[in-house]
Amino acid sequence: MSTIAWTEDHSLHTARWHSENGAPAPHTVTTADDRLSADHAYRRIRAGEALLWQGDYNNGRQLLQALGRRADRKPAKKPATGDLGALYEHERIRRRTRAGILGSLLIRLGKGYELDLRRAPDVAAACEAAYGPADAERVVTFTELLGVVSAYRWQQQGVEVPALGARVYPGYGVFSPTRSEYVDLVADAPLDPEIRTAFDLGTGTGVLAALLATRGVPEIVATDINPRALRCAKDNAERLGFGRTIAVTGPALYPPGRADLVVCNPPWLPGVPTSDLERGVYDQDQSMLTEFARDLRSHLTPQGEGWLVLSDLAEILGLRPADHIPRLLDDSGLYVLGKLTTRPRHPRATDRDDPLAAARTAETTTLWRLRAR
């Protein structure tokens, strides 16, 4: 990890720089407190400074909100409404720019993850859950710390999954199953009672592996390339009483051997993830989708099935050709046994203020039932 430096009381200070999204350490760091106005803070950030917050904790949160409002004041000119691909790229650039501005407000964590700020909460447990045992003073962005605290609340409270009839507990950096349509498809798909073994590829929280266990599959292997997801999935399997039914392994997509059923819900958009959490959304070079299809035949038993669960948002946005998946499956020696489809029910699907509302309204999620030729 790199370090950052700043001057405080005419003395040079340094600390470890930590960024979950891989952002480089800022070059120019100055201190800031409650005397700094939002307008002045915004100008300093736009001029290239990063601000190490030393004021009241709650005032720092309010400053973040004020910076966000200023970042939204003069958005770049939007492309034509009908060009959904261009709108998507515009929105990604806008969000990246906004995140860069908000990510210039920093906060220092002590050697035990303590916050030396007025009205600061105790964040030690949340930080240890996200980062591991404390070992040194570090500086993070204020937005990252808020994300760590929010994720810890989810990890403590859990997320209710109606199709499972239980809660799962997402860890920091693991995609939460708040979009329930893909879970419902797996719950509704016809399942041969003779199926004895299953692989859940890219398991995340382990929710699909747990669902297969509740449907009676006696032996399941869940995989992921994210070490945090592996820990999270194992924890959820044990919480739900499936510790002996579900074996969690990685980091790899496919485990050794063959299974009667192979389930995969890959990230639904081509793109480069910038954090562990974004690995649940963006599939760089569509590598996970391609590997799933290419290697499925060699991991299925003779009459085994593969279930690919995927949204068509990428096709709607023009990020993937409409015939890409059928061609990929055909080239991989697979044929489609059947399909189940559903419409999204998450809040953004009905948010008319979303620049991509037209695309989200048209989106469908499909479970492709596949068999080797």
From TrEMBL:
InterPro entries from the UniProt entry = DNA_methylase_N6_adenine_CS, N5-glutamine_MTase, SAM-dependent_MTases_sf, Small_mtfrase_dom
- The record places domain Methyltransferase small at 194-311
- Protein name (Swiss-Prot/TrEMBL): Methylase of polypeptide subunit release factors
Keywords per UniProt: Methyltransferase, Transferase
Q: Name one GO biological process term.
A: methylation
Give a yes or no for keyword Methyltransferase in this entry: yes
Source organism's superkingdom?
Bacteria
The Gene Ontology terms for molecular function here are:
nucleic acid binding; protein-glutamine N-methyltransferase activity
Task: State the organism of origin.
Answer: Nocardia fluminea
